[in-house]
Amino acid sequence: MKLFRKILLIVLIVIVVTFSIIFFIGFSAYSNALKEKPLLERVEEVTSNEHFVKFDDMSELYRNAVIAVEDHRYYDHGPVDYIAIIRAIFTNIKNGELQEGGSTITQQVAKNIVFSQDQSWVRKLGEIFAAFDLERNYNKNEIFEIYVNTAYFGDGYYGIYDASHGYYDKEPKDLNLDEASMLAGVPNAPSVYSPNVNPDLAKKRQAHVIEKMKDYGYISQNATIN
Questions:
Q1: Residue 156 and residue 173: Cα distance in Å, rounded?
Q2: Residues of the chain with pLDDT under 50
Q3: Helix (H) or strand (E) segment spanning residue 85
Q4: 201 phi and psi, to 5 degrees?
Q5: Cβ(75)–Cβ(140) under 8 Å?
């Protein structure tokens, strides 16, 4: 019994030390990024852009498409979706490859405006601290705005304004289901899903978006696209 308790104590110590190291590395990554430029200043640069698109100035179909495919529990969880992370871990282990990341929209905003696009685990840790900071200072709709205004849509289009005008020559508020579902799917892998680069793959991704919108009740099961 005493041996078991000692082993348990050692395991607990290892866990605490490990998480402390992870916490320190993530916090340091975020702190170093803020030394270059504070978070609120970074957000201000985005929101002060001449073509920054407000939440109410986007098509509801587009907003719903993004939520459905990127983070369907967006309004129900905090900065980090622990359920999505656990699901992603099991999915990746099951399939033997990295297929899901479990990042929330807030974490993706952190990646877009605070960190580079490299896929290092240090950056992923830093994103978590940035995500909590973002949700302390901005509401969900404001964070959604920042996300779609900083996302890359391929073909040199950064932000939903440029993408909407570049691909369809119309305002974001006028996007129909076909257009909204197409644009919602592109930022996941812009070089792959850009409709001007890989139209067939873009349509497959769009079909995935449509299925997610049906799954979560944003459109009827009979809805179709061109």
A1: 21
A2: 97-99
A3: helix 82-95
A4: -65, -35
A5: yes
User: Does residue 39 contact residue 180 with C-beta atoms inside 8 Å?
Assistant: no
Between the alpha carbon of residue 177 and those of residues 13, 121, 200, 223, the distances in Å are: 53, 36, 18, 9
Q: What is the dihedral of CA 109, 57, 181, 113, to 10 degrees?
A: -10
Rg from Cα positions in the chain: 20
Q: C-alpha angle 98/76/211, rounded to 5°?
A: 55
- What is the CATH class of 2-215? mainly alpha
Residues 6+ apart with CB under 8 A from 201: 192, 193
| pTM score of the predicted model | 0.86
Task: Break the chain into its structural domains and give their ranges.
Answer: 2-215
| Residue type for position 158 | Y
